[in-house]
Each structure stands twice: as C-alpha cells, then as structure tokens.
Write a structure and sequence with these properties.
mainly alpha; 7 helices; about 160 residues; Arc Repressor Mutant, subunit A
Length: about 160
C-alpha cells in the first residue's frame, strides 16, 4: 500500500489494518508452533490436512476435496491414495456418476486426526500456561470475535 494512502486513512481504518496484520502474523506463528506435534501422527501435512477436511466436513467427492485443499484433482488423487493405503479413508463410487468417487474418513482416520488435534491443543494450552485468567479470557474473546467476523464474511459471500 502506498504511503500516501496510509496518510489518508482514518484512525479506525488504520487500527483495523494493524489488527489484521498482527492477527495474521500471530496465526501463522501459532499454527507453525502447533504443527510441530503433527510429526507424531506419522502422516504428512498434506494428508493430515485432507483428512481434517473429511473428518470435520464429512464425506465428499474427490473434486470438492481438491478445491477445499486448493490443489488440482491429480494431486488430491495421490493424497487420497496414500490415505487409503494407510486405512485412513475409504473410497466409494458416486451413486449418481460412476466416474466420480466419494471419499470418507474411516474410524481409524477419525481417531488419528482427533489424537493429532488433541496433541496440538495440549501444546497450545502449555504455551498459554503462563497467562493469567484475565489474559486467557481475552484470548477466548479474541477467538470469538475472529470466528464471528469470518462467519459474517463467509455468509456475505455465499
């Protein structure tokens, strides 16, 4: 953004921009810190991410999973094939179109993902261990505000 446009911004706009910058940076650092636990899952990050989409989003066609993960269908096919070999997903033909496949997390896949999630949450809880009750309540409120803002934005773009 050009310096001149910064000078013309109102204080609220500057504050919103600073908040967005700080949340963006903090989110990246926090997720990278938490991802250190993912090695214990024994599944690569791309497979773990795709499995997460299936566990929390439910069964879906391969193409929709590829879109959710922002990869091309051939890449997602390889990811899903690896998950299937590990027994973490099952693949069914689409009832309406035999050329399409539907991918579903298995109970083994759900357990693995929930264990990985619990490890991440545990690490983050440890990270927040030095914070007091007021600071923890502030974090909870910030999380609520971010979830609400994303929800409003998502609803407006549908």
């Amino acid at each position: 953004m050009a310096v001149l446009s910064w000078c013309r911004m109102r204080p609220k706009e500057l504050l919103r921009l600073e908040a967005a910058d700080r949340v963006h940076s903090a989110a990246i650092h926090l997720l990278r810190h938490a991802a250190k636990q993912d090695v214990l899952a024994g599944v690569g990050p791309a497979r773990l991410s795709a499995l997460s989409v299936l566990v929390f989003g439910g069964p879906m066609p391969l193409g929709k999973l590829a879109i959710a993960e922002r990869v091309k269908a051939p890449t997602m096919s390889r990811i899903v094939a690896g998950l299937k070999r590990s027994g973490l997903v099952k693949i069914d033909s689409d009832a309406k179109d035999a050329r399409r496949i539907r991918v579903t997390a298995t109970s083994k896949g759900e357990r693995l993902l929930q264990q990985a999630r619990a490890r991440r949450i545990g690490l983050l809880a440890d990270t927040f261990g030095g914070l007091g009750k007021t600071q923890l309540r502030t974090l909870l409120r910030a999380a609520e505000l971010m979830e609400s803002a994303v929800g409003r934005t998502a609803a407006a773009t549908k």
